[in-house]
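--- STAGE predict ---
source: upstream dedup step, 1 unique chain passed
mode: sequence only
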Amino acid sequence: MNKQNISEFAKKAIDALAYIIRKIRIECGLTIGQASTEIFLEKSRLWNYENTKHSMRVETFALIIEGYYNYCIRMKAPIPVILAEQYQRIEQSDRLAASF
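--- STAGE serialize ---
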């Protein structure tokens, strides 16, 4: 894989993560302002992540997913399928990392 292919792959991955967090926020029924308060992240920073104006680390993605999941649990709101899937992936990777 050359540098251009890696760069294109990274851009697609960032776009996919942005799409996921935006879709989850909307399915949870939150505005960007409400979401930033719920997950303890600056509104402008969350907006940048959702609109791929700033790349995010895996840890940041996990923080956002866990924040939305905790919001749904606390509010006794239905958990969107896409959120449940992403949360399960994070939990599995945490368990895998802990086993080493």
